[in-house]
Amino acid sequence: MLNMAEGLSRLGALAAHPVVRTLGEAFQAAGFELAVVGGPVRDALLGRETHDLDFTTNAQPDEILAIVKPLASAHWDIGRAFGTIGARVQGEQVEITTYRADSYDGLTRKPVVEFGDSIDGDLLRRDFTVNAMALRVPETKLVDPTGGVEDLVAGILRTPIDPAVSFGDDPLRMLRAARFSSQLEFAIDDATFAAIEQLGQTLSIVSPERVQSELIRLMSTSDPVRGLRVLVDSGLIEQFLPEVSALRLEVDEHHHHKDVYEHSLTVVRQAIELERTRNPGADPDVPLRLAALLHDIGKPRTRKLEPGGGVTFHHHDVVGSRMARKRLQALRFDGETTDAVAKLIELHLRFFGYAEGAWTDSAVRRYVRDAGDLIERLHILVRADVTTRNRRKAARLAAAYDDIERRIAELREQEELDSIRPELDGNDIQRILDIPPGREVGEAYRFLLDVRLDEGVIGADAAAQRLREWWAARD
């Protein structure tokens, strides 16, 4: 809960920040107002770390530039048309924007840019009250025309104006509500949530790239599940990731299986916990978290109700991998992320065969080869996928995965497992068999790879002899 005395003290510290103080004094000397705005003010009050410094002012872009130039080691005006000047001051990157009073046409997210004449008017156009506060500098005066401090105390997300108008102006704000719900661990007030339910379809005017960006930010929070529930419960997720809400399979009184939706959310949380344990201090692993969320999206399409009350989801791993690839491509995710998520989903069931009986060294090698550089993420996903309440079963599966990781480590130490390849390359094959480049070289290479996977390192001479025998038998 917000402690106001401590919060005000932290605002004082923000105002005393060398960059904030320098800019505040410079703008005051030039006869203009300046205020730190939005996230930095909110985070200072909450005692959270502040990463970026954003300012607002009554100075016009050219006037901002004139004031900032002598203080900055670099500056840029790519946002000049929107009133924003960027600069690097004393090693800190800052953005300073002229007061705005934009209007929207209701058809696109692009506002008709209009500069305002008051800080209160500028704050009213922002997304949520907790982001609509400003700290005037250098005098250190909090400006809060919409009750942001009260909402911080209550842990509530609320729009500064009628939410139907706010979301109608910019539908991306609905996605931001879900993200801030997770990021700040705040609830969304009833009127704001109702507006998301009513206006969800307007998200269609937002570009896939912007939706993707907000999804990444949500999945990067410490607990994305809170925001994911907002998206599913409001129906907003239907506009860009309907496969998640589809996990809420209808319950059949004669056939029983675990709640796939709740299971998937649990897997996300457990994957994040393992991610932090195994990779402390690392940046959030968004591809891993997406794979955890989407790993079972093939189940609704593959569910089959069997006689006697059984339920099967045969090949849901392969089907889900294809579905995830298609969806991530539609959201314009980069190829590396898309490939990683699809491959993790495709492989996430492979381990459960190991739990039923130890694999040969050959099978372990193939597991590592197929996972490639995703093997550590696959370790986390597979472990996180165990959500059974049966303690004996959970312990058995954990012990089995401990064993496979031990064997992988041993084989890696013996054989450089991460770079498994035949002991003869394409040039060797052509020389030994006296054949030109072509399809037959590829077939020979795959034969030697199978030998390598099945038998480990046998030496170049033995590999050459096996190659000749294979070639002779092939003829």
TrEMBL record:
<keyword id="KW-0479">Metal-binding</keyword>
<keyword id="KW-0460">Magnesium</keyword>
<dbReference type="Pfam" id="PF01743">
    <property type="entry name" value="PolyA_pol"/>
</dbReference>
<keyword id="KW-0819">tRNA processing</keyword>
<dbReference type="InterPro" id="IPR006674">
    <property type="entry name" value="HD_domain"/>
</dbReference>
<feature type="domain" description="HD">
    <location>
        <begin position="260"/>
        <end position="381"/>
    </location>
</feature>
<dbReference type="InterPro" id="IPR032828">
    <property type="entry name" value="PolyA_RNA-bd"/>
</dbReference>
<dbReference type="InterPro" id="IPR003607">
    <property type="entry name" value="HD/PDEase_dom"/>
</dbReference>
<dbReference type="InterPro" id="IPR002646">
    <property type="entry name" value="PolA_pol_head_dom"/>
</dbReference>
<dbReference type="InterPro" id="IPR014065">
    <property type="entry name" value="tRNA_adenylyltransferase"/>
</dbReference>
<dbReference type="Pfam" id="PF01966">
    <property type="entry name" value="HD"/>
</dbReference>
<dbReference type="InterPro" id="IPR043519">
    <property type="entry name" value="NT_sf"/>
</dbReference>
<keyword id="KW-0692">RNA repair</keyword>
<dbReference type="InterPro" id="IPR006675">
    <property type="entry name" value="HDIG_dom"/>
</dbReference>
<keyword id="KW-0067">ATP-binding</keyword>
<keyword id="KW-0548">Nucleotidyltransferase</keyword>
<keyword id="KW-0547">Nucleotide-binding</keyword>
<dbReference type="InterPro" id="IPR050124">
    <property type="entry name" value="tRNA_CCA-adding_enzyme"/>
</dbReference>
<keyword id="KW-0694">RNA-binding</keyword>
<keyword id="KW-0808">Transferase</keyword>
<dbReference type="Pfam" id="PF12627">
    <property type="entry name" value="PolyA_pol_RNAbd"/>
</dbReference>
<protein>
    <submittedName>
        <fullName>CCA tRNA nucleotidyltransferase</fullName>
    </submittedName>
</protein>
